[in-house]
Amino acid sequence: MIILIRKLFLLALTGLLTIVTAWPQKVYLGGGFPLEVKVSASSSIQECPPEKTIDGSGMDYKIFESSRFMAQSTLGAHIHAIEELSDVLDYKAWIDHQCNIPPTYITPEVERVWEQILEESANPEDEFGPYSVHFNYAWWTVNMTSDDVLRQRIAYALSQIFVISINSDLRDHAEALSSFYDILIKNALGNYRDMLMEVTLHPSMGYYLSHLNNPKEDSANNIHPDENYAREIMQLFTIGLYTLNRDGSSVKDNQGNVIPTYNNHDIKQLAKVFTGLGGGGLDPVVTWKTNPDFGDGLWTISKETPLKMYESFHDKGPKTFLGCQIPANQTGMKDIQDAVDFLFKHPNTGPFVAYRLIQRLVKSNPSPAYIDRVAAAFNNNGQGVRGDMKAVVSAILLDPEARGLQERLQPHHGMLREPMLRYTQIVRTFPVFATRDRYWNNGYSYLNSTRQHVFASPTVFNFYTPDYQPVGDISDAGLVAPEFKLHNSTTSLSYINDVNGWVGGVYKDDVTNEIKEWGALFHSWESTSENPDFVRMVTSELEPYAWDSELLINELDKRFTCGSLTDETRNIMRKALNGTYWNWDPQNLWKYHRIKTAIYLFMISPDYNILR
Amino acid sequence: MSGKHKHINRRAFLHQASCAALGYTTFFSTLANLDILQAATGFNVNHSDTNDYKALVCLLNSGGMDSFNMLIPTDQGLYKQYQETRTNLAIPKESLISINPNNTGGQTFGLHPALKNVSSLFDEGHLAFISNVGTLIQPMTRQQFYQGGIPLPLGLYSHADQMLHWQTGIPQGRVAQGWGGKIADLLNDYNQQKQIPMCLSVSGSNLFQAGHKTSAFALRPITGAIGIDGFYEEWSVNRMRREAIIGMMNQTYQDIYKKTYTSTIKNAVTGFELIQPILENPPVWNVTFENTGSDWSPSLNMYFEMVSRAIAGREKLGMNRQIFFIEFGGWDHHDELLNSQHQKLEELDLALSQFYTVLQQLGIADSVTTFSLSEFGRTLTSNGNGTDHAWGGNTFVMGGAVNGKQIFGTYPELSLGQGNPLELGGGVILPTTSADAYFAEIALWFGIPPSELSLLFPNINNFYSPGSGTSPIGFLEM
Question: Which of B256, B327, B375 should we substitute to test contact with A (largest number of A Cβ atoms within 10 Å)?
Fold first, then answer.
């Protein structure tokens, strides 16, 4: 009876008042709030007696704000985490706290996965690995269980700047993938310079961009240093193609043309710097020798030990690029440090990194002023330190353009959520049931559906370039929307079908009379019919709301659309959910179908897929 | 002819066609978004001959194919140059497959040993090569290159920029439309009975087919178009979901991201309903396409198989013009060039020959032109066991309309240093045939009037006089 009264009260309110956007102050009925702010009723049955609505303490806006912040700063959050943050709404403190959580690395998990594979195998000596699928098992396990959620989100974003890919022989070596990813985890909130150096010396990058075993010039045989890494460290990791202002706009010459940052001469000179690097250790399987030699390939060398300089293969001459002069006869490693330092300190690097990370976390088309503020934080964290990632990440997430209501209302604010981030969100938003108490996900079916999975970019240019413009309104407006590169007539519907598979269905077991759900978020390749190995979501926390479509929608609006569900979409959903009802079924199976349909519709709705 | 009137007719036609013949009920009442263009910018092509069918198949060999190891001079002196320059990457002369071009004045050439079928296609007159093609804004000499003054393509030697230029035909800038998409904008009226866009991609979203007004419809190798699971079932839960999806996708959005998100889905569903029954029932042909790759990364022949199905369905789909796109990546051989390139070329060789056989069996080989793009040639010199990004390279075209058994353009000398007027140092070759001229020839054959070429390729007048009455290069029978 009490519940019924509350419900009527809530319905009355939601009827009168509509959508919420956020405002960082106490907003309550009659409290006086700015014109743009609309207020809705609070909707949580347990926690919201009418008086909480009257005094404003139960308002959902804080939860919406918190949810939106977590959509930008984590790989997905359970409602309890969202509520916990919403209680204080102190993002800076949350970031500080996150920075102090020890990192969780992938490589130890790869080792655990591999041990388990061998343990479970009937023929351990026939098992191949650990390779990329075992990396995927470990990656998902870490991202389902670790507490350092900000760090993991930034590491994932960085994996789209420092790109290596399983579309190469790296797929055969899980530890090559994991130890490289661990660099990104380690430095995600550390310093960009350290990360750039570690990336440069990692065997996986050495292999992928071919500066591993790159000898100095041999003019007698027309052999010149490999230019691949020299080019891409500039184009993709630091300075980009054109000279930039700090706000990310291009500097123009007197004729109004953009100014290239480097020419082929610069590349040839820098290529000499990256000569002489070879394996830093041996793969544990190598027993026929004790030290690596220059020229030893990926299978022979250690995939986790930084590359080593083999001086006799290093070009000892002077090198001059972009005005940077590297004197002759330095050690090879000193050459590399000088070059990396120079690129790190180049004025382009701040806006270059700022633009890319803003696009990954907040929006596709940041204003020049926003880029400028983040680039300034890159250039100086306030204590004279350049490249402090914590300062950069804070500047991105705490910026008025990321947080503010006014900015959020701008027509060009927003981005298409990456397919991978939709996936990580659904698996982290609800509790899960795992048949074997583990989170092994092969990842390939989602890659096949959406063309995206961690370290599965087709090339070093990532899944999309920062300047990708889909045909139609977005390119007509002169705007970019990188993620739309992955949104076409096959991927868009494959995604919908994957959501359908995740939410699955429900049935009544005729023998036991139990209600059973089906549907799987994860599949491992170790799954058999006798011993299944999958993970599915548990949505029982929504059951109390399922009897009323409106309440269910409100609950999911908190988790998925951060309070931005439009009236129109809400009406469409309400109709579908109200229609998901029948009265002949004593088990009330319709409730489960309604929950599943609600999640399905949210996850495929434009309101969710466009993060505003 | 009013656009509105035509639109209504088209819709009525489609409704009948889809309900009666095709197998899937259609749920979105409007097809307006399937093809954004409504005859606003295209030519008013007065087109009555429905038998005039043409298709382009763009094969983007992305990564930068080392095409100086694809087509190799075999005359004594020239092979020696090749061998001296390429050192450890030179393919032994005895393993090359000899071909017999009829326009090289007796100069002999060989193909990479993996290209057995391609060599037959060449000798039978179905395939031609174009030598030393590259992006250019104006023709230039080595001296001019070093002195500056003549504008260079932006981002020379860079994957991203060169890939852009080969697909856009605008090497001085970075634009978001490709020349295939712009051709589709212009020639939209050829497909009066069109049910799906002129541009079909078997490799997802791409720049080549992005027009101002049209975009590509994506298919997958092996399976074709994709529909929404459960969408066509009548169980109440499915029906509720379907109605909600239709509701969400049919809303009008001010937010351009939401608008783009939903219109893609709507077009995908509509296109699926129209095209899938046709793709699923191709005519019988005597070629077995076997996937030698994986499910998620099929071998190249499976991409051509899907193109074959779509071509076979051209009449049912109401198409007089089709543009296909296939991206075949993995050519960036900084490393392990010899082994890796051999595998890639073998895959290419099989795919081209299977595709051409199907086209012949369909009796449509004369109407389909397949052409290759690759963002750059690679350095002639070795970096140890691979090659780096360079500039000019060799391309091929295949089809019944191709003046085959010929090598067009000028095959460059392959020596290094001052003696070679095209060598820019490090084994980079200055292109002598502009990519624009290559594209223009293809565009003219496809139906773009000479007077409109500069709409597509703003630099074309630097390489070709559209009023001259001759072809830009001559590899296609106009």
Answer: B256
